[in-house]
Amino acid sequence: MSSPILKLFSAPETRQRIVMTLLLLLAWRVGFQIPIPGMSAEFLRSSADPNSIFGLMSAFSGGAFGQTTVFALGIMPYISASIIFSMLGKVSPTLEAVQKEGAAGQKKINQWTRLAGVPIAILQSIFIYTAVFQQNPQTIDVSMRDNGAMLAVIVVLSLTAGALVVMWFGELITEYGIGNGASLIIMANIITDIPSVIPKIIGQEDFWQTVMLMTAIWLGVVFFVVYIHKGQRRIPIQYAKLTRGRKVYGGQRHFLPLKVNMAGVMPIIF
Questions:
Q1: Which of 3, 146, 185, 203 has the most CB atoms in a 10 Å sphere around its CB?
Q2: Rounded to an integer, what distance in angstroms lies between the CA atom of residue 54 and that of residue 64?
Q3: CB-based contact 194:102 (threshold 8 Å)
Q4: What is the pLDDT of residues 59-110, one digit of tens each?
């Protein structure tokens, strides 16, 4: 009996989608080797602690705030725009009407989400420069510390362009690859940090306690997410009986399943 994994590669379309997904993820990782001009890579690389604010924001954004790369924002602007439109769809009758248009309405909302991701990326880039780099001069290369205006333009444009490229990669994965592109980028970013985190955990004195605690937390979070995501509210439906001649039709009892979480994957990502 052949392996189920090998059966996936036997279908040409599935094989092509898997290869496309891996190539796009590889191209996404290449972007982390492109530094932002004017930044001090040595300082931020030494500050890239997973327990710091840099590491925490990086894990949830598919980016690398602890590294001076153009992909530092990751896919966070796109996720922020998606969350905004998800919430507006519940309070705005106009947007709710567009959502009910089916595939055409979803296409419009996706386009609006992409456009909204641009100003969000610019604002987040400005925030990173003013609240992180400008307040910590040691993060800036010595040769660029006297050119504040030019450095700000370079940092904002680099981070914004990198965020748009990552958003584009996510769209390509969703369309031509396997699974949701944004979710895969975030997952891939977390997985890439595992090799560097494992030696730190092994070196601790309370190694087994840490492993058991993290495993319990992981199982609890997975159970809670799946429980809510798969939860349904069953509305009973009673069909009326219909008599035609000597035959009786209907009279059956069914249920109308309504999902507890109708917003999809966005609350999970949030």
A1: 185
A2: 7
A3: no
A4: 544 445 545 678 888 888 888 888 888 778 778 888 888 878 877 888 888 8
CA pair distance 111, 105, nearest whole angstrom: 10
DSSP string across 134-196 = TT-GGGB-GGGTT-HHHHHHHHHHHHHHHHHHHHHHHHHHHHHSSS-HHHHHHHHHHHHHHHH
State how far the Cα of 134 lies from the Cα of 127, in Å rounded to an integer: 10
Cβ-based neighbours of 257, under 8 Å, separated by 6 or more: 232, 233, 234, 235
Q: Cα-atom radius of gyration of the chain, to the nearest Å?
A: 24
Give the CA distances from residue 64 to residues 21, 162, 263, in Å, rounded to whole numbers and listed in that order: 20, 11, 27
The amino acid at residue 16 is Q
Distance in angstroms (rounded) separating the CA atoms of residues 34 and 36: 7
Crossing angle for the helix pair 76-91 and 148-176, nearest 10 degrees?
70
In terms of Cβ atoms closer than 10 Å to its own Cβ (0-12, 13-18, 19+), residue 196 is exposed
Query: CB–CB of 176/20 below 8 Å?
Result: yes
Is-contact 31 71, C-beta < 8 A?
yes
Number of alpha helices (DSSP H) and beta strands (DSSP E) in the chain? 11, 4
Q: How confident is the model at residue 119 (pLDDT cuts 50, 70, 90)?
A: very high
Q: Choose the most confident range, by mean pLDDT, from 143-147, 165-169, 235-239.
A: 165-169
How far apart are alpha carbons 29 and 270 in whole angstroms? Answer: 23
Closest CA to 63 of 79, 51, 75, 52: 75
Phi-psi category of 74—alpha, beta or left, where left has phi over 0 and alpha has psi -120 to 50?
A: left
Residue 229 tokens read as 């995501």
Q: What is the pTM of this model?
A: 0.69
Give the integer Cα–Cα distance in Å for 210 and 208: 5
